[in-house]
Design brief:
two-stranded parallel ribbon; alpha/beta; 25% helix; 9 helices; single chain
């Protein structure tokens, strides 16, 4: 497909027929090529660049029409806003972070404007990292009935612990920083759990109720005086356990 793009943009003022055979393909086949060109869902495409859906709209009018008519191309991108409308009614995979101080702050206003509640209801995979002060509240995004995978990394405490009992499809939770101390998830339904920068004493009560776990990781464990208290934990379905 890269050769085809080069042919259209560099060599073909009239990209039809012999000058660009790829444009004679049925739209259905071209659409499948487009899907294969992008990262597989739930991996996210960049908003711009060679592996973004937008680059497909810039080759020629025919490709632009096909790409804009395909909701599947717009379901997993690394920025929200008006681009979400192109995802139609498909489920969504979203990543948002404020790793850089020069980047967009993850404020309540930012999420309200770029991530309306109607889209949160279709959120299936969420990767959220917050390291700078914000007025953002976790329920604005995390409370989604379709949420299956949650990656949450926090470097600051929120005013109060947030409970999320209504996440019926949640199966994977990866919590870093102080996220574990800020949220209460439906632990008993999780099959994959990864906790980072926590004490073993705090992990044990959660592991005692997370009986469906298949994969568990406890990373960068902090020592605590209560760690010497041994409690029995039964995980009958556990296949992998990583402890560092």
């Amino acid at each position: 497909m890269t050769r085809a793009m080069s042919t259209v943009t560099e060599n073909s003022p009239d990209p039809v027929g012999k000058s660009c055979p790829v444009l004679t393909l049925p739209n259905e086949i071209t659409a499948e090529i487009f899907v294969g060109y992008l990262p597989s869902y739930p991996l996210r495409s960049p908003l711009f660049g060679r592996t973004s859906p937008t680059v497909l709209t810039q080759v020629c009018q025919q490709w632009r029409q096909i790409a804009l008519a395909m909701p599947r191309l717009w379901t997993a991108i690394s920025f929200t806003g008006m681009w979400l409308t192109k995802a139609g009614n498909c489920s969504l995979s979203i990543e948002a972070n404020d790793y850089s101080e020069e980047g967009l702050p993850l404020t309540a206003e930012f999420f309200a404007e770029t991530f309306p509640s109607s889209y949160r209801e279709r959120l299936e995979h969420l990767h959220l990292a917050i390291f700078h002060p914000t007025d953002f509240e976790l329920p604005m995004v995390v409370a989604s009935p379709l949420l299956r995978d949650l990656y949450l990394d926090l470097d600051l405490d929120f005013p109060h612990v947030v409970h999320f009992p209504d996440l019926p499809l949640l199966r994977t939770a990866i919590l870093g920083g102080v996220a574990f101390s800020n949220v209460v998830l439906p632990w008993s339904q999780l099959t994959t759990l990864s906790l980072r920068q926590v004490t073993l004493a705090k992990c044990i009560p959660v592991l005692m109720v997370a009986s469906d776990l298949v994969n568990c990781s406890l990373l960068e464990l902090h020592a605590h005086e209560n760690d010497s208290i041994i409690q029995e934990v039964k995980l009958p379905y556990l296949e992998t356990m990583l402890k560092q």
